[in-house]
Design a protein that fits this description.
Blueprint (H helix, E strand, L loop, with lengths): L17 E10 L2 E4 L5 E2 H8 L8 H4 L7 E8 L2 E8 L1
Antiparallel strand pairs: 1-2, 1-3, 1-4, 4-5
The structure holds zinc ion.
Length: about 90
Amino acid sequence: MDFPDTLRCSACGDPITGAGYLPAAALDDGYDPHPADAVCDACGFNDVGMMGCAPELNDVTGPGPADVLLYVRTTADGVEIVDKKA
Ligand SMILES: [Zn+2]
């Protein structure tokens, strides 16, 4: 996998510290992330998704190569996948 060490929210422009959402293409052996479309947890819930609901993949990115939305957490070691939704 080729995950960036840091992510920046595409909605508010702030660095993502803590949880966030990262669209990615599913590969046979992992994911190909699209960090340019990442959103932070707050924007994912309030601006991108419906208020109080996690965003759907189509809320974050238009039709394209991404086919899963990863719920990630950024730590001192980099980006860790917490959950995913297709
Ligand atoms: Zn944001």
